[in-house]
Specification:
By secondary structure, the chain is α+β, with helices and mostly antiparallel strands. The chain has eight helices and 19 strands.
């Protein structure tokens, strides 16, 4: 028996040395045996085993330590299944969990989720420092359907749309992964939730956008109608459909589904915001195709005295942050002076384009670099 144990120890040491000497994770399969189940993560060329950069601020340190602790805790099938089920509830329209809402959950061993996270953090996490991050979330933006059969690795991000993210395998090996190219395996992503305000409320208008996306979930693709021949007095102005040709250009896979906000600015009476709203929110895999996605939001009944001869649309992708504003320049009517209108936004917003629509336009489709939309005057 002693000889058998010695052989096992030698094999374990050799395996650890081989794993530690590998610079790049290619076709190796990393597996975890837990509660009798053997589930593997086929990393292929998605990740590169590497040392995580040493220059970090406090939030990066805390999120890194949180990710590493989760890579340990998530090896427990009860914890993993709990998190998957909470993510599938889609509390805010995405597969995302606010840590503050689940930290107190008690598992069958009588230990809370937060206690498990702290106990496995090598004394790097405390309740006090985690409480500093009310928007800390655990997100599985892609491939959640595989999470029952593959142990997710864990990555973290403190900025939106990072080109490169770092994380940990379920064996606590550190790695880097592209934030641009979508992986084929499931990953937990530790980051700030961009759909909530600091007080825990959803961003204004987002719930309606989530509901519209859910209503259209079975068939999100729009029926197109040729209805435009200029905007007549009293005609409806309806943003009927939209598409995002290259989703990863506006929202990395680690940030999940995009939150696209449109603000329509009128040109009459010195300008002003006519309407601001969030477009329908769909699952990430729906975006990026050539098909047009359903929207159907009425902007106004076009009356020249109220809206003017043109409307300026500005489109942003909402990435959170503090409240701010962006100035939109509205050209003057009939050769008059232009005016500047302040459009409310948030600090991390990504500008997707601005389009001026004249009431004499006979066409319906408007193509910007990152965004296209199609307007109609009938439902």
């Amino acid at each position: 028996m002693k000889s058998f144990k010695t052989k096992i120890s030698a094999v374990a040491i050799m395996m650890a040395m081989i794993a530690g000497s590998m610079g790049c994770q290619k076709e190796e399969v990393l597996s975890s045996t837990n509660n009798g189940s053997n589930i593997s993560h086929h990393s292929n060329t998605e990740i590169t085993l590497t040392t995580i950069k040493k220059t970090r601020n406090q939030q990066e340190d805390d999120y890194m330590n949180f990710a590493k602790s989760l890579s340990i805790v998530d090896n427990n099938s009860e914890v993993r299944n709990f998190l998957i089920q909470k993510a599938l509830e889609q509390l805010n329209g995405d597969y995302e969990i606010l840590y503050a809402l689940v930290k107190g959950h008690i598992f069958s061993d009588g230990v809370s989720f937060e206690t498990k996270m702290i106990d496995n953090s090598n004394a790097t996490l405390t309740s006090a420092n985690l409480a500093q991050y009310p928007l800390l979330s655990i997100n599985m933006p892609v491939n959640i359907e595989l999470a029952d059969s593959i142990v997710p690795f864990v990555v973290y991000a403190v900025q939106h749309d990072q080109d490169l993210m770092y994380g940990f395998t379920n064996q606590q090996q550190s790695f880097s992964i592209s934030g641009i190219n979508e992986p084929s395996n499931p990953y937990w992503v530790i980051r700030d939730n961009e759909r909530y305000n600091d007080d825990g409320t959803l961003v204004e208008g987002l719930q309606d956008a989530i509901n519209l996306g859910l209503d259209n979930a079975e068939n999100p693709y729009a029926d197109m109608k040729n209805t435009r021949a200029g905007r007549g007095q009293g005609d409806k102005e309806i943003l009927w459909s939209f598409k995002v040709p290259d989703l990863k250009a506006i929202e990395s896979w680690g940030d999940g589904c995009p939150e696209i906000k449109v603000t329509a600015v009128k040109s009459a009476n010195g300008g002003g915001v006519l309407k601001a709203w969030q477009l329908a929110v769909y699952k990430r895999k729906v975006y990026g195709y050539a098909s047009w996605l359903k929207e159907g939001t009425k902007v106004c009944d076009w009356i020249l005295a109220n809206q003017g001869t043109f409307i300026v649309y500005t489109i942003i992708e909402d990435d959170g942050g503090g409240t701010t504003s962006t100035n939109v320049t509205v050209p003057g009517q009939n050769g008059g002076p232009s005016t500047t209108v302040a459009v409310a936004g948030r600090a991390n917003d990504k500008q997707m384009g601005t389009q001026t629509i004249f009431n004499t336009d006979s066409y319906q489709q408007y193509n910007l670099n990152l965004f296209s939309f199609y307007n109609q005057n009938v439902y």
